[in-house]
Amino acid sequence: MSTETSTATATATATPRTEPAATLLRVENLHTVFEKDDSVVHAVNDVSFDVRRGEVLAIVGESGSGKSITAMSLLRLIPSPPGQIIGGRVLFDGQDLLDLPDDAIRQLRGRDISMIFQEPMTSLNPSLRIGRQLAEPLRVHGSVPKDKVRERCIELLRQVRIGDPEKRLDAYPHELSGGMRQRVMIAMGLACLPRLIIADEPTTALDVTVQAQILELLRDITRASQSSMMLITHDLGVVARYADRINVMYAGRIVERGTAHDIFHRPRHPYTVGLMESMPRLDDAIGNRLTPIPGSPPDLSDPPSGCPFHPRCRFAQPRCKQERPPLERLDQEHWKACWVNLDDTH
Amino acid sequence: MGFYVLRRLLALIPTLFIASVIAFTVVRLVPGDVLDLMLSENVYSSGAPEDRAQLEQALGLDKPLYQQYLHWAGDALQGDLGESLWRNTPVTGEIAARLDVTLELGILALLIALAIGLPIGIFAAVRQETLGDHIGRTFSILALAVPNFWLGTLVVILPALWWGWSPPNKLVPFFENPLENLKTFLLPSLILGTSLSAVIMRMTRTMMLEVLRQDYIRTAWAKGLRERRVVLMHAVKNAMIPVITLVGILVPILFGGTVIIEQIFRLPGLGQLLLEAVSTRDYPVITGVFLVTGVVVMLVNLLVDLCYGYLDPKVRYDR
Amino acid sequence: MSLSIQTPAAAAPATPPRRRTRPKTLRFLQRLCKERPLGALGAMICLVLLLTGLFADVIAPEGFNAINPIERLKAPSAEHWLGTDQLGRDVFARIVHGAQLSVIVAFAATTLSIVISALLGILSGYFGGRLDMVIQRLVDGWMCFPDLILLIVAVAVLGPGTWQVILILGLLFGISGSRIIRGAVLSAKQNVYVHAAQSMGASSTRILLKHILPNVMAPLIVLYTTRLAAVILAESGLSFLGLGIPPPEPSWGGMLSLDGRSYMFQAPWLAIAPGIALTVAVFGINMFGDALRDLLDPRMRGGGGRYLARVKRTIGS
Question: Which residues cross the membrane (chain B) (predicted)?
Fold first, then answer.
């Protein structure tokens, strides 16, 4: 059976256990809840992962899986009320961001960790000129001397390949196209040369052709500046091309983690398998139909017992209904939270 | 921008025309004839039909209504609103003499209303569901329910009863002695302003709550801005756009308020002129005051539109 | 080609449909008490006001107009709960009968105004075209004039009196309210099913009754409650100026009027009681109206602001 082989390989490769030294951000047992009417929604539940220096880490999941809330929790941008981070640690350079005083986390935002949001249409202030919005992080964090701010803004716009940057500085957001606005958002995120860029669905609202341009731009820039990026998306195509490692989230938890290669070629969680099957692939043999995952994501104010995925899982066993599987290491980089052992031939 | 202003001004013309027709005709719907009233008051009149015809001709009332309107509108365009029936003084002059009192009262009240309403509204939204928010909202609920004429009456009566103090009612022109002048206006405009501030506060709070939920506010936080900057730079300007519209809507209410407040504090403004004219049935004065208030409201709305253009960049070029 | 996760939308939400055993009104009252306690308080005040109006003669049978020179300007006592005025009339009786007057004026004028608003709004919004243009320009011109000034001028034309005041207030608020109804009609018209009904050849009357009117009901009810308070305030304001309901009718505004001011220095209760009655009544109606708006017509939630902006957009002004 495949069960033995997979556990065997896991123990075999895991023995050296060299801790990756270059961890930039470590999230431990993050737990974020939202109060809704009389119930509590566990949007992020016991999530742990780390981001290494220079890598692109993806978090993938359906909408409502808690990936955006995870990202916002890191910088404490959860609107409260109704949201609240009730547990966990977010270690950035060894200091716990959840413990920092308000003023310290504020200074970190945009300077050391910046965020690029998903809606370029609404994420820019409609009543302020682009130049002013772009200059704001620079001014607030004092990254550039005052008389150099404009110069740096032009440079930034040029970097994100916006033509005629001097003129664009005086434009209002509504005068720019969606792709252009997203470039401005990226320029804003890059302004202070952050060590971590969190990009939350950076291309969802854009045309397919523009999507590719923006993503390549993001990857090139993070590579050039040696910063890390957390890429949050529901789009497996994006992940396949740009991410080094992938976390798959379902119902507020991470269900599988691995290198892009692991996830795409040796998925070990039924949910990940389902995602792959619902995704059209270029290398597919003709006749293989796309099979969507049956059912819908659970109500997070009243999650199912045991494994949250079991009601939709075609491999579900009696145990899955009673006990929640922990996230366990399969091999060096590959983790999963599932009682069932799948092999490559599922 | 200049072209935009010009276009807005041109757009006013049809409204102005209709408003003037309304002002002219409404007053002429009077059941009892003005002529009878004038004749009965006139000691020299013998009540003979010739007198009546003579007076009718003198006042131009013998012509058809549209001719009367054209005549009146033509004069009005040149700034001549006719003469008072009883005093034979030009209506334009009477109005001009009273307008400054009303405008000063109105502007002061509006400033006070904004000075109270905006900060409390912003604060209540930023600190939603805190004690401060609840106090602010309770205040606005109360201020909306308390009629300004009752508040005014109490302010005149209670201090007089308790401390024998009554508000100054000697009116000194502003440019003669600004301090004395403001002293007279302080209490009236405070009362008017407070009752208006409730609406402004409520509106500001709702709009701020709306804006604070927007994505660009999240962006502003993510940049690492201080709360003060997020609120004042990013939220307030966007929340102000609908609030400015509200100011336009409030101006007519403010006008009504000045009539009542002028009455309570015996300020010789437009409202008092109107009430005097109503009690003496001085129709040219009534029509004149009526028209002038309408025109002022129209101009304020134009101003509001222009402010809109300043605050909302999207308006500036299109339309 | 976009590669993305597809969640089948077919799965329905798991919550079971609510039990519909209780009658609609009762459920509404429950929601009112639970979600908007202030609104429930407002409803109570409205009810008290209504009952006081209905049973004024039972509550204060001596009559509001019994002049008694010996008893003039008496301070509140067991016999005269709220004292007496300059003519020796019992202030409590006058407040109670003032409630009756306010209720009558408020309901009559508001009903008239709503009828006018609905007629104008539906006419203008539904039929559109040139008719809409003409009506809207007229409304524009009308709305340039401040409410109170219009009222004063109208009183100058018609003369003071209860029916005149009702007529004028109904007309005034009717015309200004037509805008809101027109906006609601326009948005209802844009709904797909009206287009569908039209293409299926339904008659105008049928579309109006079956499709438009139900959609306009919520704003109409909301408009009705907010107008009630506005009418009471406007009537009392006019009576305060001596232009509304003429004495000896016991209008709350009239009781505060300038004619009585000199007596108020001797007898401050004359200035207190009618003001409190007015404030409480307006407060109650406002709170009830707010709660109604939130519960009935969520589109209007969040103050007039967004709604006004939306109306403005639909009007294109």
Answer: 9-30, 105-126, 138-165, 185-204, 239-265, 285-311
